[in-house]
Design a protein that fits this description.
Radius of gyration: 38 Å
Number of helices: 11
Oligomer: single chain
Number of strands: 11
Strand order of the largest sheet: 4-3-5-7
Order of helices and strands: HEEHHEHEHEEHEHHHEHEEEH
Distance between the termini: 144 Å
Length: 420
């Protein structure tokens, strides 16, 4: 009994202490929650203020600082030129202008007029971008604007155009009917042309070209791709620095524009310098019976030019299997055109060259060779077919003329070729 009383008394004494402890624990938990809530609220207010401040500073910086612009070097510009206040360097060929001002974000379309601006010859596109851009074909053939067709004169040179003064007279007064593109050695100093020259600023991004190597047809395709950027170019003429025109601009322009066929020389030649250059690894894509040879100096229309710059199949075959003594510039285009586009090709070139002396290079002509009789033979000394008729104007250009012949050419041209 006494033990039970003692236990009862101990329980009675411990109960107030337990209640007091629970009360303390409750207040501790209560103030703990308040403390955590207060800290969270303080952190939230602080973060909100910081984020607002960062956002405000970013917006303020956008409107106060000059807008970011991707401006290539003054020697380079896109084709066609694109003007923007804000552009992404990895996507700088878009057709949209984006400008930012203090009030709003304005997106302005450049429209067709901007798209059709005459491209600059020099640009910063790499070759993959260039050939993709050049290979575009409008599926609607009739343009929604007045288009004056132009002839693209493409000069494949080591340095400057040797007979530039003669060509200056040839082009004079015919602005808007031609385009000029020059592919020189990359080390060439273009300052030889003053700003009044038709050749000034007409250099394209070029690479080194070595005689007899595949770099020759790469350069030809590069010239075509650049010329195709101008939608007005409808005829394409490949020339060297030693070429001369045999007629005035009007005659050549009319001859090219009215022709129903292209002018890529192509013929089957037996022997070491013809079929002997064929590589049987090209079969079955190119058979020996399809192998052709011809002059590299061509005159073609826009349709064929588009097919040439878009070609990967035949081009890769020649790059892989046509190395000296196989010269791709004498076989690539003649062979491909004969296989795929023979119906529209005349199988002749409009550029006269003298191979009568034999050897790897044609004859050169100096001052003493230049007579009126000689030039007249080049102009009217042969017969050929043109649009189903036999005519005696078979060559519009000739080579290889040296700078020593320039003086006489400048004296004969105004009267004989009726320049200007």
């Amino acid at each position: 009994m006494t033990m039970k009383n003692n236990k009862h008394q101990q329980g009675t004494i411990a109960l107030p202490y337990l209640k007091f402890f629970n009360a303390q624990l409750y207040f501790i938990n209560f103030f703990g929650h308040i403390l955590v809530f207060g800290l969270g609220l303080l952190i939230g207010i602080t973060l909100t203020f910081c984020l607002k401040n960062v956002s405000f500073n970013f917006q303020f910086q956008q409107f106060q600082d000059p807008p970011f612009s991707f401006n290539p070097s003054s020697h380079f510009s896109h084709s066609p030129p694109i003007s923007s206040n804000l552009s992404n360097p990895s996507n700088d060929h878009n057709q949209t202008n984006i400008s930012i001002n203090e009030k709003s974000l304005v997106i302005t379309s450049n429209g067709l007029e901007e798209f059709l601006k005459i491209p600059m010859a020099m640009h910063d596109m790499n070759e993959e971008e260039l050939f993709w851009r050049a290979s575009m074909i409008p599926m609607i053939h009739k343009p929604p604007f007045k288009q004056i067709p132009k002839v693209a004169f493409m000069f494949l040179t080591k340095g400057h155009v040797l007979l530039a003064p003669l060509w200056e007279k040839f082009f004079k007064g015919n602005e808007g009917l031609y385009s000029i593109y020059i592919h020189p050695n990359p080390s060439f100093n273009e300052t030889v042309y003053d700003q009044s020259s038709v050749f000034h600023g007409r250099r394209i991004p070029s690479k080194e070209v070595k005689w007899g190597e595949n770099s020759m047809i790469e350069a030809e395709r590069r010239l075509l791709a650049n010329a195709l950027l101008d939608f007005s170019n409808q005829r394409f003429v490949l020339l060297s620095e030693s070429c001369i025109p045999l007629f005035n601009f009007s005659t050549i322009y009319t001859y090219l524009m009215n022709s129903e066929k292209t002018f890529v020389e192509a013929y089957d030649l037996e022997g070491a310098v013809g079929r002997g250059r064929y590589n049987y690894k090209m079969s079955p894509l190119i058979k020996l019976s399809q192998w052709r040879k011809g002059s590299q100096w061509f005159q073609i229309d826009r349709s064929l030019a588009l097919h040439i710059v878009s070609d990967k199949l035949y081009f890769s075959m020649f790059k892989n299997y046509c190395d000296p003594p196989c010269y791709s510039d004498e076989h690539y285009m003649p062979t491909m055109v004969s296989i795929k586009f023979w119906k529209r090709n005349s199988n002749r070139t409009l550029t006269w060259v003298d191979w009568s002396k034999g050897g790897p290079h044609p004859s050169k002509f100096f001052r003493q060779h230049l007579t009126i009789d000689f030039l007249e033979r080049l102009r009217f000394g042969s017969t050929c077919e043109y649009n189903g008729k036999t005519i005696n104007v078979c060559h519009l250009f000739a080579r290889k003329f040296t700078p020593h012949a320039l003086d006489r050419l400048l004296r004969f041209a105004p009267k004989l070729m009726q320049f200007n």
